[in-house]
């Protein structure tokens, strides 16, 4: 059975987040979607990590943007893996799972991030699997200007009912919302407009029960992949659109 849900950075509870082993675990657990985070190296290569600096996940220090790809590959992620490129991840995941590609753009921090990400998606022939998302909505709008076919999504830490005309303007049909800001009214507003509602993170059993009771058609994001998979299998009302 396919598990409708977004594996957040792969399977971060059991594997180092945003690594190839973490992504493979999500595939092995039959999740429909996976989310990963994209930055640019000093020499302009899209690489994967959540944070802007490498301290938390590697044995190095400093900002991703200050290292070339070769230099970044020197560091070890939790002692066993290297920082993957977007191209490596897409080649691994090709034909297996839908991918939410989160651009970690922040103002003008990464000039060319949108272009280079689209270039890798084109090169790996994974356009049909990918949706580009982000908290920097200027970056998502720019992505639409660059490519009329790529699916897009916005991320938000709050509720933003005023965002819907903007989403229509840039042909964007996914809205990731922090779970604590979700309400039935907000979910209905998205559903009326054909927007996929993406609450995050859904990790506890209480959160999962809330989803089943109020938002059974939503595309949730979770860190607790096995917990959600078991819950999902036991709640047939969630098996919509899979």
* Low-pLDDT residue spans: none
DSSP strand content: 15-25%
- The geometry reads as globular
Q: How many helical elements?
A: 9
> Whole-Å distance between the termini?
9 Å
Query: Would you list the SSEs in sequence order as H and E?
Result: EHEEHHEHEHEHEHEHEH
The biggest beta sheet reads: 9 strands, mixed
Residue share in helices?
A: 25-40%
Structural class: alpha/beta
Compute the gyration radius: what is it? 17 Å
**Total number of beta strands:** 9
Average pLDDT number? 97
Search tags:
single chain, nine-stranded mixed sheet, 242 residues
Task: Explain what the structure shows.
The protein has helices at residues 20-28, 69-74, 86-93, 113-123, 137-146, 164-169, 184-192, 205-214, 225-233; strands at 3-8, 31-40, 46-48, 98-103, 130-134, 151-156, 174-178, 196-200, 221-222. It has 242 residues and is an alpha/beta fold. Strands 1, 2, 3, 4, 5, 6, 7, 8 and 9 form a 9-stranded mixed β-sheet that branches. The model has no long low-confidence stretch (mean pLDDT 97).
Quick overview of this protein structure:
The chain has 9 helices and 9 strands. With about 240 residues, the protein is α/β, with parallel strands linked by helices.
